[in-house]
Amino acid sequence: MLSVSGLSAYYGRAQILDDVALEVGAGEVVVLLGRNGAGKSTTMKAIMGLVPPAAGSVRFDGAEIAGREPFEIARRGLGYVPEERRIFTELSVLENLEVGRRPATAALRPWTPERLFALFPSLGSMQDRPGGRMSGGEQQMLTIARTLMGNPKLILLDEPSEGLAPVIIERMAEAIRALKAEGLSILLSEQNLHFAQAVSDRATIIEKGRIRWSGTIPELLAADEVREQYLSV
Amino acid sequence: MENLLLQALSGLASASSLFLVASGLTVIFGVSRVVNFAHGSLYMLGAYLAFTLVTQLPRGHLGFWGGVVGAAIIVGLIGVVVEVLLLRRIYRAPELFQLLATFGVVLIVQDLALMTWGAQDLLGPRAPGLRGSTEILGLRFPLYELFLIGVGPVVLGLLWLLFHRTRWGTLVRAATQDREMVGALGVNQRMLFTSVFFLGSLLAGLGGALQLPRESVNLHMDLSIITEAFVVVVVGGLGSLSGAALAALLIGELHAFGILVLPKITLVLVFLVMALVLVVRPHGLLGKPEAAARGGQGSAAPLIGPAPPALRRLGLAALAVAVLLPPFLGDYALSVLTEMAILVLFAASLHLIMGPGGMASFGHAAYFGLGAYGAALAGQWLGAPMLAGLALAPLAAGIFGLVFGFFCVRLSGVYAAMLTLAFAQIAWSVAFQWVELTGGDNGILGVWPDRWAAPKLVYYYLALVLCLGATLLLRRVIHAPFGYALRAQRDSTLRAEAIGIDAFRIRWLGFGLAAAAAGIAGGLFAYAKGSVFPTYMDIPRSVDALLMVLLGGVHTLSGPIVGALALTGLQEQLVRITDYWRLVLGSIIVLLVLFFPQGLAGAARARWEARHGDA
Ligand SMILES: Nc1ncnc2c1ncn2[C@@H]1O[C@H](COP(=O)(O)OP(=O)(O)OP(=O)(O)O)[C@@H](O)[C@H]1O
Ligand SMILES: [Mg+2]
């Protein structure tokens, strides 16, 4: 579904990504693990076209998308959920969802506000509340719901557990499993190994902009030295 | 009492018209973050096009209202052309570049309008059905004014519905906050921006077209409305529609009653209010602090290094010419050279603020003018000799620079640019309206140098020595610890403060120093011309200063010097060979911003470095 190879990216003159490669199969949840500043967010931004890739290929659903503009990439069915959430604070919950709305193209069941409120019940009770007056957890749900309104085939989910209370993280994990059950493919980025292993099929580890390890979750759990070297405790 | 009511009503009518224009400006700013100087030109085009359509179409309701609406739509389309050809390419450029580029459009439109409609004022027909007047509480009030009073709220209501009840409006509001995110959600921002430009331009065109029955159509409408619209939009809070409505009301009534109570200071009053609001509420009445640059601004500026040897040699050669050639030149050439020397200093002073200081100034002419007026007033009222006048010039400019700068350097980006503009306009209005002191529009004449400096050659050398000396001094300052502190706070206020630099104080002093230097230039200019006028501190002169700096390039010290020489040379030639020099100059500005954003000296330097592989 998504296949990245040889991807490199720069901020100004600083090279942030170097020869990044990863794969996400249809219906699969892959987690990109790495410490602070490892390049997880940049990888997602480069895939999405928000940071122009300097070299490499990004193939999505059979077509090359590297070098395309973000809106074109989104229209092909790639959804992006930013780490900073970037809720439209002036807009109500329903209006935030409206901005994300795009006609369904995928074979997946189309999303409606009602279905999303079933997935994230707390959003349903605050449909007219401005995005700026929601808690961090609620904003995190809204940003995911907003992206789902575009009926993507695959979503890039950047550190959804960051800064959330354990109970909310648990609920987030359930939601991600529900999305996987719907047939959605997910590329997740995380530092929280506990959360990642609960929802993912495979893991890829990035450190200083390079991919250091790839394998299944059981393999990762077995490889103590890999975890120690690349993931902070 | 009755008079008050009439005045209030006519204030409402002005507020309504002002709101139409300002709403377009603020909507465009909200989404694109571009402060569109050309918005006033669109307003002017609306009036001219309405004139043509209304006088060509058959008389009657259909002809008139069809003409007005038709003009507004055509102006909307013109706005689309401007957006697609120019603005779309500079959305990520620094604010001052955008202001400059859109000012280029102002110049172009002025000459195109001159070519099409001629220089004379045009009087349009009155609106059919709204010709007479009506009685309100026993007072006669023109029907058309009453109609205008109604238009404002109706447009406000329609815009509100558009922004809150349609998908398009929701997308626009979202893009106002975070356009990159809207793009990542699959919305084609280009289409969105272009459509917003269409709407905003249409509103400007409508505002202009509706003036047809009220006042004559002329070539000065653009700048007079744009300054007022800036005031309204900034006072209301950039990007805020309700803020614009509130501010339009405030400014409209202020005008109406200001004329009754303080007829002498109406102009000052408006800018005073703007300055006051910005000082107390830096983001306007209903504005929000700008979100930290989302998908804006490029990377940090490169460091300024010493000039490469070739450039140094070129500079020395130019200096040799400047010293050795003049004895062989006639008076006219000497005047031109004197002016060039003065403008080099003027540009170098602005460069200190913009380059190393990283601040925006859209009103640097104020300090040039204050220097000129300081010298001229001292001569006229105190009988001060020239040298005393020249000493007073930087003092006057410097003191005002410190006073104005105290407020300006706290703001950044568009708001800083607007506050410097407001202060410049205050200075300009005082010079313009305080006739007893300054002679108003007629200026102060007979500001001649003392006898010993009267020969053009002597005065030229005097100007050369002072300007060169001051410019070299500025250069030294940039490389002194003060200059490093200035650049440190530009690159990162936090880091600068962490190493013990008081960023505010450094910026403030830098601003004052630049103002004083501009004051020297202004004083010299006054004696060179023998007169001073309010135009010494009007917007076009501030733009000239910006143009010189940006033409040369902000990131090199030689930039402003090259820019000053290039611009004066260019203007000199253009005025001589064509009546349409604005068209040419405007096009040059636009092309420059599009293709040489680092300026002439910057581009030359980049080439030089690329060729000689030195980093
Ligand atoms: N806008 C930017 N400009 C310059 N450098 C940046 C920018 N954004 C990120 N970086 C740098 O790029 C590197 C990778 O950052 P990135 O945000 O991709 O890391 P991350 O793995 O997502 O970290 P985190 O877990 O903190 O979110 C870091 O060294 C960071 O400092
Ligand atoms: Mg990150």
Automatic annotation (TrEMBL), chain A:
<feature type="domain" description="ABC transporter">
    <location>
        <begin position="2"/>
        <end position="233"/>
    </location>
</feature>
<dbReference type="Pfam" id="PF00005">
    <property type="entry name" value="ABC_tran"/>
</dbReference>
<protein>
    <submittedName>
        <fullName>ABC transporter ATP-binding protein</fullName>
    </submittedName>
</protein>
<dbReference type="InterPro" id="IPR052156">
    <property type="entry name" value="BCAA_Transport_ATP-bd_LivF"/>
</dbReference>
<dbReference type="InterPro" id="IPR003439">
    <property type="entry name" value="ABC_transporter-like_ATP-bd"/>
</dbReference>
<keyword id="KW-0029">Amino-acid transport</keyword>
<keyword id="KW-0547">Nucleotide-binding</keyword>
<dbReference type="InterPro" id="IPR003593">
    <property type="entry name" value="AAA+_ATPase"/>
</dbReference>
<dbReference type="InterPro" id="IPR017871">
    <property type="entry name" value="ABC_transporter-like_CS"/>
</dbReference>
<keyword id="KW-0813">Transport</keyword>
<dbReference type="InterPro" id="IPR027417">
    <property type="entry name" value="P-loop_NTPase"/>
</dbReference>
<comment type="similarity">
    <text>Belongs to the ABC transporter superfamily.</text>
</comment>
<dbReference type="GO" id="GO:0005524">
    <property type="term" value="F:ATP binding"/>
</dbReference>
<keyword id="KW-0067">ATP-binding</keyword>
From TrEMBL, chain B:
<feature type="transmembrane region" description="Helical">
    <location>
        <begin position="508"/>
        <end position="527"/>
    </location>
</feature>
<feature type="transmembrane region" description="Helical">
    <location>
        <begin position="64"/>
        <end position="87"/>
    </location>
</feature>
<dbReference type="InterPro" id="IPR001851">
    <property type="entry name" value="ABC_transp_permease"/>
</dbReference>
<feature type="transmembrane region" description="Helical">
    <location>
        <begin position="41"/>
        <end position="58"/>
    </location>
</feature>
<protein>
    <submittedName>
        <fullName>ABC transporter permease</fullName>
    </submittedName>
</protein>
<feature type="transmembrane region" description="Helical">
    <location>
        <begin position="414"/>
        <end position="435"/>
    </location>
</feature>
<keyword id="KW-0813">Transport</keyword>
<comment type="similarity">
    <text>Belongs to the binding-protein-dependent transport system permease family. LivHM subfamily.</text>
</comment>
<feature type="transmembrane region" description="Helical">
    <location>
        <begin position="332"/>
        <end position="353"/>
    </location>
</feature>
<keyword id="KW-0812">Transmembrane</keyword>
<feature type="transmembrane region" description="Helical">
    <location>
        <begin position="230"/>
        <end position="252"/>
    </location>
</feature>
<dbReference type="Pfam" id="PF02653">
    <property type="entry name" value="BPD_transp_2"/>
</dbReference>
<feature type="transmembrane region" description="Helical">
    <location>
        <begin position="6"/>
        <end position="29"/>
    </location>
</feature>
<keyword id="KW-0472">Membrane</keyword>
<feature type="transmembrane region" description="Helical">
    <location>
        <begin position="191"/>
        <end position="210"/>
    </location>
</feature>
<feature type="transmembrane region" description="Helical">
    <location>
        <begin position="458"/>
        <end position="478"/>
    </location>
</feature>
<feature type="transmembrane region" description="Helical">
    <location>
        <begin position="259"/>
        <end position="280"/>
    </location>
</feature>
<keyword id="KW-1003">Cell membrane</keyword>
<keyword id="KW-1133">Transmembrane helix</keyword>
<feature type="transmembrane region" description="Helical">
    <location>
        <begin position="580"/>
        <end position="600"/>
    </location>
</feature>
<feature type="transmembrane region" description="Helical">
    <location>
        <begin position="388"/>
        <end position="407"/>
    </location>
</feature>
<feature type="transmembrane region" description="Helical">
    <location>
        <begin position="99"/>
        <end position="119"/>
    </location>
</feature>
